[in-house]
């Protein structure tokens, strides 16, 4: 078996070598290929003195695959012999995150699905507008299956004309999708060292950054044995990677760390001491990060437990517990109801989590930040917060809160189950400590591992009722119903009302157009009218038609007023400097310091920095004195240009603060927590 594997390895290596020789000797001619290439440009009219992005899309047939820039033990990446017009240059292609494929004991760095290589094309300022910039080249690559490798080549070309650099919206969206698959550059260098037959790497990565199914793809040759197992561990803010050495390479090393499905970081590592291994990053056969899973699961349980103190859930839990205490039921009945309550809470949390995962699988972005970039989501949260606020104030009663609470008053397993389901459902608009991190971790877990995290939320939500059901002393010590519950509930309307006002402000900021705000205003007003009308019916008010008539008048006047106010406010705010690549280029060309910050109205840390540092009078006076040009990138509604800029600086969220000193090639990335003194010191003001 060993000799057969050796022969297979030698044969595959010879096949790769033969492929390279054939590519070098063979003429460029049109031929059928197993991987179809296509060269496209983001802008068909690149501007003189500017750049545009080229994409070489590669579409393999089944079961063929192409290779990363370093193909691993067998195979090689793509090369292009360009035929370029005068004044045009093309940078090397950038590759998306590859997959690791072991065949016959050899490690291959491959793409078994369609992929795109990206490169920047630069046009010299001397090129006259209207010039034909059509470029072409001969692309060479290796296509393989698990049995055979074939050298392939094709002529690629794209028609370009020197123009104004216009990028069609469709092309921008398509290229943004390809850019999102590129590894993000790590802003700090790591270290590596060789110890006998082993090689070790220290990669600077904050402990808060989760990794899923990690693998280190080393681009530099003669450093590691590609097929050898890789051991990952965490020591503080470093990932330690240990594997077998191969070759005698010295000096800096370039590599790519895969952090999850289709996600990665490009690295530069310099020779230096590497700390000892830390806590192992354990993965199971499916490649999930078990440390992340257990942390998220525990955080979801604790976060669900804390939710019982939130005004959304506490009335349901307390009323059901008091009902159980008054019933005088025996221990067996208490345990049955507690277990049924737990089953209802967990099942509902699982159903909600499954719906969330299904949306993500359908291509929707999941996460608080991304949800709040959509006005429809904000409006839905606003209506829900308004409904809860009015209920807590007593404008109307939900069946689960008062005399009509058939579910909560129903005894036995059915009553416990439906009350638990209701508690979990009502808890969905609430947020509490630990839940954000726990549910955010589900983005880095496969669906089958993410679902238990949602189930943990339901379990945490049910823990108090489990304790009440199984510990008689707790049931006996519960306070009796009284006026305190009504007073407490009305006090809980205050934080929910403040949340409602914050969502109104955010929706107004997002839409920014009077005509667009009319219908959300109508929806909010009608919700107010209908809920108040529902409360009037509950109280037996026979004049409820007066509420409907006055509500309609209120709706019309509110819509007209909001439209005028929003229109006037937009005019007042229209004088700010807005970030764009062109605006940044002009600002840097002026020779003045440039301060760029990216923010969003739903980002609390962004707003805190703006109020506490950026917009302070002393800071603005220092900026004015030094002639600082300030550009603001607003990511409230999402923006592909800003998203791309964040990715270029190794970030995927706001805030991001960039300081361009006059004449500097690259910006300085400022900390995410700013102080007035920090900004004043940047311009040397005393």
TrEMBL record:
Gene3D superfamilies: Glutaredoxin (3.40.30.10). InterPro entries: Cyt_c_assmbl_TM_dom, DsbD_gamma, DsbDN, Thioredoxin-like_sf, Thioredoxin_domain. Keywords: Cell membrane, Cytochrome c-type biogenesis, Membrane, Signal, Transmembrane, Transmembrane helix. It comes from Sphingopyxis alaskensis (strain DSM 13593 / LMG 18877 / RB2256). This is Thiol:disulfide interchange protein. Residues 556-686 form the Thioredoxin domain. Pfam families: DsbD_N, DsbD_TM, Thioredoxin_7. One of its GO terms (molecular function) is protein-disulfide reductase activity. It is found in: Cell membrane. It is a multi-pass membrane protein.
């Amino acid at each position: 078996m060993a000799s057969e594997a050796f022969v297979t390895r030698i044969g595959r290596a010879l096949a790769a070598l033969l492929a390279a020789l054939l590519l070098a000797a063979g003429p460029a001619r049109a031929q059928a290929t197993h991987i179809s290439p296509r060269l496209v440009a983001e802008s068909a009219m690149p501007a003189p003195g500017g750049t545009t992005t080229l994409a070489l899309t590669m579409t393999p047939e089944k079961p063929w695959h192409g290779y990363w820039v370093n193909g691993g033990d067998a195979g090689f990446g793509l090369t292009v012999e360009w035929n370029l017009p005068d004044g045009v240059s093309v940078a090397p292609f950038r590759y998306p995150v590859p997959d690791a494929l072991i065949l016959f004991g050899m490690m291959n760095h491959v793409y078994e699905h369609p992929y795109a290589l990206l490169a920047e094309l630069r046009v010299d300022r001397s090129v006259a507008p209207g010039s034909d910039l059509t470029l072409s080249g001969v692309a060479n690559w290796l296509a393989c299956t698990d049995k055979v490798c074939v050298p392939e080549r094709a002529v690629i070309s794209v028609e370009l004309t020197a123009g104004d650099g216009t990028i069609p919206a469709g092309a921008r969206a398509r290229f943004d999708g390809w850019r999102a698959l590129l590894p993000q550059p790590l802003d700090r260098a790591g270290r590596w060292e060789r110890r006998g037959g082993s090689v070790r790497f220290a990669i600077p990565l904050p402990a808060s950054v989760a990794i899923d199914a990690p693998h280190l793809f080393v681009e530099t040759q003669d450093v590691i044995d590609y097929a050898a197992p890789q051991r990952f561990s965490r020591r503080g803010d470093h990932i330690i990677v240990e594997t077998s050495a191969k070759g005698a390479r010295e000096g800096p090393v370039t590599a790519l760390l895969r952090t999850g499905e289709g996600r990665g970081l490009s690295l530069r590592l310099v020779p230096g001491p590497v700390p000892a291994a830390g806590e192992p990053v354990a993965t199971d056969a499916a490649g999930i990060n078990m440390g992340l899973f257990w942390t998220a699961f525990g955080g979801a349980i604790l976060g669900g437990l804390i939710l019982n103190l939130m005004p959304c859930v506490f009335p349901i839990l307390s009323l059901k517990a008091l009902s159980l205490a008054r019933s005088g039921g025996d221990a067996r009945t208490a345990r049955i109801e507690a277990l049924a309550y737990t089953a209802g809470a967990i099942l509902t949390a699982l159903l909600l989590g499954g719906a969330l995962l299904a949306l993500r699988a359908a291509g929707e972005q999941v996460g608080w930040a991304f949800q709040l970039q959509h006005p429809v989501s904000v409006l839905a949260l606003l209506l829900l917060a308004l409904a809860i606020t009015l209920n807590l104030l007593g404008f109307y009663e939900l069946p689960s809160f008062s005399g009509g609470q058939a579910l909560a008053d129903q005894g036995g397993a059915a009553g416990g189950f439906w009350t638990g389901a209701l508690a979990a459902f009502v808890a969905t608009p609430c947020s509490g400590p630990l839940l954000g991190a726990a549910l955010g971790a589900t983005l880095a877990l496969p669906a089958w591992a993410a679902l238990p995290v949602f189930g943990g939320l339901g379990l945490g939500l049910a823990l108090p009722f489990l304790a009440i059901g199984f510990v008689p002393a707790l049931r006996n010590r519960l306070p009796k119903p009284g006026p305190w519950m009504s007073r407490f509930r009305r006090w809980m309307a205050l934080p929910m009302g403040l949340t409602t006002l914050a969502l109104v402000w955010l929706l107004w900021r997002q839409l920014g157009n009077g005509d667009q705000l009319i219908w959300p205003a109508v929806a909010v007003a009608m919700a107010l009218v209908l809920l108040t009308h529902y409360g009037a019916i509950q109280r037996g008010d026979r004049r409820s038609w007066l509420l409907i008539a006055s509500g309609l008048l209120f709706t019309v006047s509110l819509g007209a007023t909001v439209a005028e106010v929003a229109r006037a406010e937009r005019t007042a705010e229209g004088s700010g400097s807005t970030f764009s690549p062109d605006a940044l280029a002009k600002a840097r060309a002026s020779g003045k310091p440039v301060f760029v910050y990216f923010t969003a109205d739903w980002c609390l840390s962004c707003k805190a920095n703006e109020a506490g540092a950026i917009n302070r009078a002393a800071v603005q006076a220092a900026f004015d004195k030094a002639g600082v040009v300030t550009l603001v990138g607003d990511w409230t509604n999402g923006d592909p240009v800003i998203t791309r800029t964040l990715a270029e600086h190794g970030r995927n969220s706001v805030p991001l603060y960039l300081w361009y000193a006059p004449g500097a090639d690259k910006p300085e990335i400022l900390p995410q927590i700013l102080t007035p003194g920090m900004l004043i010191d940047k311009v040397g003001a005393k």
